[in-house]
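Reopening this ticket.

The earlier resolution said the output was attached, but the attachment link was broken on my side. Pasting everything inline this time so it's all in one place.
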Amino acid sequence: MLELYYRYPRVLRRLRDGGLGDEMDRIAAYLFEQGYKRGSAKVYLGRLGSFSGHLPRATPATVIGQSVIDGFVAGYPTEAPRVAARTAIELARRVAPERFPAPSPEPDPHGPLLGSYLVHLRRVRGLEPRTCEGLLLVARRVLAWHDERGAGQPLSAMTGEHVLAVVEHLLALTSNAHTRTSTTSCVRAFLRFLHWSDLNGRDLARFVPRTPCYRLAHLPPRLAWEDVRRAIDATGGTTAVDVRNRAILLLVATTGLRNKEIRSLELRDIHWREAAVVVRQTKTKRDRVVPLLQEAGAALADYVLHARPRNGSPRVFLQHVPPIRPIDGSIVISRIVRSALKRGGLDLPRVAGAHLVRHSLATQLVRQRRPINEVADLLGHRSIDTTAIYVKVAVPQLADVALPFPGGVS
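Inline output:
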C-alpha cells in the first residue's frame, strides 16, 4: 500500500527495510481508508520511516518500549516535528498495538474505592456518565484533602469536624452559587456512600452545610432572536464543513436539542415524511419527538445527501478531519455554535454554546405566548418548574397580570 504515496523503488525499499517492516504498508492502508490527505499521510509516513530506521533491524517483530520512542522524538530540535513524530507513532500504535504496548499507569491508591463508588453510581443510582464524572471529581478532592490533613488515619476515623473542614476548603475554591451548591451535594453523596459501604460507621452527610442557591433569582443567559437569525444567515458556504455547521445550528435553534442530543442523533432518528426527529438518550431518560421545520430539514438533507463523508457510523454528524469518526466531544459542538454566533457579529458571554441558543429559543417561544407546557415538551423538561424560569423574561405577559397601584396614578 506504500505505492499509493511513493513510486521510487529505493524509497519503498528504505521504508520497508526498517524495524517496522510490513507494518508500514498496513499504516499506509489505514491512512488511505481514514481519508487522510495525501500531504499529511506522506508527512506521517516519512516520520515513521525515520523511526523505523531508528529501530534495531535484527529484531523487526519485537515490542517497542516507551524509552525508544522518547529517545527518537527527543532527537528533533524543535517542537513542531516532535509533535508530528508523536502523532505518527500514535497512528502506528492504532494499526499495530502489539508492537506498542500501552505504558502501565501508576497505581492509584484510591482506585479500588473510586471504582466501587462508580459502580454504585451507575448501577445502584442509575446516573449518567457525565453526572458520575462530577461526583468522582469531588470524591477525589475529598480523598486528596484527607490524605493531606488526615495524618494517615483511615476513612473510618473521619468525624463531623473533618467534614466541616473539607467543605470549607472546597467552597473556598469558587464563589459561584451553583457550583458551591453542586459541590456540597457531591460531598454529601460521597459521604453517604462511605456509610452505605461500611467504610465509616457515622452518617457524616448530615454534617455537610447547605449552601443557598436561588434558582429563579437570575435571568437565564439568552440572545435576542434577531441576533440568532443573523448568525444563521451568516453561516453558509460550499464546503462540507460549512454545510454541516449550518445544519447543526439550525437544529439547535429550531428544536432546542442539547449538545449530547445533537451528537447522539442517528440517521434512523430522522423521519423525513413526518417532518420529525426522535430524540433518544436524553438527559431525562425519556425519548421525545421534536418537529423538523422546513429550513432545518432542508439543511439537514443537504448535509446527509451531499456533504456527509462516507462512513459506516449511524451517527448523523461526523468529524471531517481524518480519521473520519462521529463527534464525541461536547467541545466540538460548542465551538461550531460559538463560531457561528461570532460570525454573526455577536458579543458573546464567556460561556456560549448550544445551550445559549437553546435558552434563546425557549425565551422566544415564551414571548410568542406559546403555552408553557408546550415549551417544556419541546425542551424535554421532566418538570414544568424547570421551564418556569423563562416566564421571567416575558415582560409583556407579566405586565398584563400586574395588579393596579392602590389609589391609582396621582
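Reporter confirms the inline version is readable. The mean pLDDT is 85. DSSP finds 18 helices and five strands in the chain.
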